[in-house]
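QA checklist item 7 of 12: single-chain prediction sanity check.
[x] sequence parsed
[x] length recorded as 586
[x] structure emitted
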Amino acid sequence: MKRTIGIILASIVGIVLLGALFIAALSWAIFSPEPLPDRIVLELDLNRGIVEAVPDDPFLMLLERRQLRVRDVVNVLHRASEDERVVGLWVRGGNPLGGWAVTEEIRDAVLHFRAADKPAVFFAETFGELTPAHGGYHLATAFDEIIMQPSGDLGIAPLSVEAPFIRDALDRLDIIPRFDGRWEYKDAADMLERDGFSDDSREAMTSLLTHLQGRMLEGMSEGRGLSADEALERLAGGPYGARRAQELGLVDRLGYRDESRDAMTDRVGDDATTIGLTRYRDRGELAWNRGTRVALIYGVGPIQRGQSEFSPFGSGGLASGTVARSIRQAAEDPSVRAILFRVDSPGGSYVASDEVRREVRRARDNGTPVVVSMGNAAASGGYLISVDANRIVAQPNTITGSIGVVAGKLVTEEFFERFGIHWDQVTLAEDGVGGFFSSVQDFSESDWEHLQRSLDRIYDEFVDYVAEGRGMDPAAVDAVARGRVWTGVEALEAGLVDELGGFPAALGQIREILELEPDAPMRLTVYPTEPTLLQLFMDEGRGIEARASAPSRLLRGTVRLLTLLGSDGWGEPATVRMPELRTPGG
């Protein structure tokens, strides 16, 4: 009955949306769009946010409908650099873009645009408001001119990383964390087992921050005309108010939005028309819309088994079945010459990661080359799904590596007893205790030994997969593995990636593999086809049915909350996932 009601509701919504689409199509036919003007200033508002791919969730799609995709921004700026009609770029920003590598990707595209002798002006009301905005400012240093509102702040300071450690809280609740990993740097469970960073984790995090900060200092030096010592001195002295930032040469002038537009007019003349990046994208032929066909497949989010499904509580992450099927379909399509696999994932299920890795390997072995382009993170399981690609491209600030595994559970028997909740068990185990899969009991000695063997097996397999995929000796892989995270720069030195860069560099690798000219045009086709809002709602009423059952799902989720305390917390018993990192203003 519930499903029938859901289908009826979905049909009603579908009819309404179809009517709206018909009216929109009719309006388009009657009122054909005006051609692009002869002189254009591109306008880009990055404070609206930027995403890797369209979500497969109608409600998230509605929320993110105004957000731009990374590839769109890079694509448009590369096309605009060659378009004689485009004479300048005006960007409003200041907020972090959600990751260091994405910031670097957009920054590189701006520098490419400027290399065509076209001016770029950056306006920010503020870089954070008594909050960090390192990524926003790092992007701004790629522009000819930075203009900030007089009341704004420049939220920069030496980088740090923060992580919560809740071992003391668990002790007070009589909850015992029982985890282990491979090896010393695989610290995803440390937040449960420790009250602070281990020496190994502190070493790795210090190295990571040093590289990220070094990249930011390079941008400040090159973009603001500062020496290395001056850039470091200014970073160390932050944060700043707008006037002090101008005095130190960190911004060029103070002004408001209208004044920043006047600054662009002064550079290009008053006969140029400002149009949004989206309108320009929709009206013109873009750099990656013609030529050799390349399948673009996204692997974004935590990795889990199964197919992508709608959830009223948000996107489900990287579903291995969906991504594996997309790779398989692209490899079987004779019109597809190569696959560009865009990976932005902290890892997740080992089994799910291996499923995707296998399809990448099959595509490669069957003659369809695969090039991975890494986003903010391609670590642990995110690195495993990348290792069998023909080439791997990472941004200097991509977080990758973390070759290792962690597993375990929280022992909650005493916690429940505090509230008068007593768990009992009926088991056929010879020792009378079925503890390995128990959500409340501790591991027995033999159970713990089995867990150790499983961790050894998964780690050894992971190392072997990397060694085979990258053409390295297993001992050399182990030396740079052991659960440690690396930046893209470090990964290149260690042989874990092949080149530094973003979408353009990855497409360059594809041209090289296919023996095409360095400037040969490429046409990117997304697999699977990115769904429209109408398609999501009309998928057999699934979206509305899911919403209709949301209260019952919420109730079941609440009931399960305490039970989940007895699991590993990552949804899979063997997790290849990087530790959670929180760096300011990334």
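[x] summary fact logged: The two ends are 48 Å apart (CA to CA).
[ ] second reviewer sign-off
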